[in-house]
Amino acid sequence: MARIVGIDLGTTNSLVAYMDKGVPRVIPGADGRPMVPSVVAMTDHGLLVGDEAKEHLLRSPDRTVYSIKRFMGKGLADVQSELAYFPYTLTEQGGVIRITLNGKTYSPPQISAMILKELKQRAEAYLEEEITKAVITVPAYFNDSQRQATKDAGLIAGLEVLRIINEPTAASLAYGLQEKTQGTIAVYDFGGGTFDISILKLKQGIFEVLATNGDTHLGGDDIDRRIADLLLDEIRSAYGLDLGPSPDYMQVLRLEAERAKIRLSDELKTLLTVELPDGRGRFTRELTRDQLESLVADLIERTLAPCRSALKDAGLTPQQIDEVVLVGGSTRMPLVRRRVQELFGKQPHCHLNPDEVVALGAAVQADILSGGTTDMLLLDVTPLSLGIETMGGVMSCLIPRNTTIPANAKEMFTTYVDGQTGVDIHILQGERELAKDNRSLARFRLKVPPLPAGVPRIEVTFLIDANGILHVTAKDMRTGRQQSIEVKPSYGLSETEVERMIEESFKFAKEDVASRKLIEARLDAGSLLAATEKSLSEGGHLVPDDVRTAVRAAVSALASAKEGDDVRTIRTRMAELEQTAKPLSVALMDDSLKRGLEGKKLSDVT
Amino acid sequence: MNQPSLSSGSRNVQMARSMCWHCQSEVAGEYFCERCVKVQPVSKETDYFTCLGLPRRLTIDPALLEAKYYERSRAFHPDFYLNKTEAEQAISLDNAATLNTAYRTLRDPVQRAEYLLDLEAGSAKTIRTSPPADLFEEILDLQDTLDAYRAGDHSSETGRQLRARLEAERGALERRQAEMEDELQKLFVEWDALQDRGEADDPSRMERDRLLRRIREILSNRTYVKNIVNDLVETIG
Ligand SMILES: Nc1ncnc2c1ncn2[C@@H]1O[C@H](COP(=O)(O)OP(=O)(O)OP(=O)(O)O)[C@@H](O)[C@H]1O
Ligand SMILES: [Mg+2]
């Protein structure tokens, strides 16, 4: 079976890992570092992803996208409260957020796909083979729409997503592989955009998730905003200057806030500096760790309620947890560690690199799927209750939260009116009584043969697969015939839309490759021309006239080819020039060799 | 709950002999065909006990149940079917889902008993939904007291009296709960012993019906008591 890589598609950072003879390893980029900042910039010179894109956060904020994961599987109304922090135009179409950059509109899965493609290329360069299959991680508390959006992103990037796996459980796989622990563990994953808690039982290679909980909209980003908002207020009152409406300055504040926050994990105080616009000078402020902690205490507090709920659902007390594992960059904050330690009454485990452990776990799961690892098995759960809307707008639960997946439920439907030909079904996810308080997943219309009321019997099966993604099938019990149903997602791309995006992405990929090749050819031609000019001026006198003339002719032929946009012609002219200039370079070599020897003799003498 | 309805009534469901979906050779309840080694679908008629390879008993050793569940998960989980045909993947998905439901149901003693009642005595519809008269009266009374307490001033003399009464009631109900749990345990043991003897004469049939009726009665009363205790805990903490 072809290789499957493991990908941690994070809010802030993304990584790709693979299994190397039973040991999971992250794949470094050209700079040797495995982390790719989850930032995408549409520059005048094309698409940039990762570190290079990050530099554009300040240079062209309206064309540089960060934290796209917060938008996955969401509608515009879901992110209303944080729109101020995003300097680009956001709209909604078909329940899906759209981002307009450079006059072109993208859905969040398309942006995520750009990050995935970067990781795919990294893996291909490193492993020297084509990569088409992946396991991608998502926060455990992601709902169906968010998982589906992630899967769509994979497809658009040209990856077959063999499994969507939960981040904390992925971490537990990497942890379990390394520590060979048995017993109950709690994985506390606090990253850039999301918080998850999962409680697992590890026994004889089985990783059984007992309960999971979290908040898909709580992470380091929120901490940064608290600090940025503080700066915003202080600059306003000190200078009468409101930076709020300026996206560029919001980015400046946000980035400065994040840097200060990270420093305060090691230091007790730090200095924040902001260059103000229009020569208004520089704003500086000292921030102590204590001040930071009181500024964000409530955010950290918000992670504890999900922990308690998960413990309750698992039927365990904090004392019954054998080991607490910390995952995610935000767990480096001393305050987070203190609060976690207080809650569980034990020192959390942090020997594993919290940045890499999720990707490593995804690689382990990939190895299980490809048949390499056979003694480990992950039994995960669905984080949210699944149900349908019934009369009076109440949600009737079909599959309760924390049910082990795959899970299914069957429900029989009939009609209330003679001759009724359809039944409308509204699928929901959430823990509230009323349908309107839960997340709408999808709607579909069940086709029913026209018969007296109550006679039709249609059995609908709701199946949550091992990815935590819902599949619905229906069967007419009178005829035994399976009915195909078209489910319309409430917050997702339709199948045809995804297909179109895959095609587009292929087209772009071809254009990208073509233009990259042209750029490279021109660059190469440029350096060859410069090198040849240098040789001519240094060693033109060493070769006969006709050689010099031929070289000059080849130089101008290449120079004019370089102006055109045909890669082939450029490369051919380059080869011709190299061929023609050979006598020149040979002559230069001989000459320098001779002079080198002379030099040596001289130095020997002295 | 939406457990698949088992229409078989009190008939003992035996693992049906059937044909392998792939090579048509005979399979008798194994999960893999002996000839072509393809995974076999867990039949719709298979009850949760059979699905987990356990006898139909009310007392189950949790460690044994877990071991069986893990063993079968290793056999059925979709993670191990990625290289297989689409048909096998579909079977593995269905089997794993059924196995998970079976484990979830049997793991909890009360759900297990309710499930067994369904299997043994037909559909859940016949379970009486109203509590016995004395319990009914008691609950109505208590609800009135609760309402009065909620509406009134907690620090007043009446408030304090009401609270004292509610606390006393709560104690009594919790004792009652404990008694019910004890009796259930005893009935479970009696039921299992009767099954172990495997007699089919008239007295054992009568004994069987008596046990089923009593278990059902306690299970439904238990729900009423549990609900009102929850209400009490919510109100007086
Ligand atoms: N030393 C540190 N102290 C405090 N916060 C830190 C530190 N290092 C990194 N962070 C924060 O951790 C977050 C990134 O963590 P991580 O890379 O685990 O997130 P992610 O995986 O991208 O996000 P998510 O898992 O939520 O999708 C950022 O908000 C970053 O500011
Ligand atoms: Mg993460």
Name the biggest interface. A-B, 27 and 20 residues
Strand content of chain A: 25-35%
Identify the bound ligands: adenosine-5'-triphosphate, magnesium ion
Whole-number tally of structural domains of chain A: 4
Principal-axes shape call of chain B:
elongated
Largest sheet of chain B: 2 strands, antiparallel
* Multimeric state: heterodimer
The structural class of chain A is: alpha+beta
Helix-and-strand structural type of chain B: mainly alpha
Helix content bin of chain A = 25-40%
Give the CATH topology of the largest domain in chain A.
Nucleotidyltransferase, domain 5
The first-level CATH class of the largest domain in chain A is given as Alpha Beta
As residue ranges, the low-confidence spans of chain A are 601-606
Q: How is the main sheet of chain A built?
A: 6 strands, mixed
Sketch the topology of chain B as an H/E string, one letter per element: EEHHHHHHH
Average of pLDDT of chain A: 89
Number of domains of chain B: 2
Strand runs of chain A, count: 28
List low-confidence stretches of chain B.
1-16
Describe what you observe in this structure.
The complex is a heterodimer of chains A (606) and B (237). With 606 residues, chain A is α+β, with helices and mostly antiparallel strands. Chain A is 40% helix and 27% strand. Chain A contains 14 helices and 28 strands. Chain B folds into two domains: 9-107, Helix Hairpins (Orthogonal Bundle), CATH 1.10.287.110; 130-236. Chain B contains seven helices and two strands. Chain B has a two-stranded antiparallel ribbon. Chain A binds chain B through residues 1, 162-163, 203-204, 206, 368-371, 374, 377-379, 398, 403-411, 463, 465-466, and chain B through 2, 4, 70, 73-74, 77-80, 82-83, 93-94, 96-98, 100-101, 103-104.
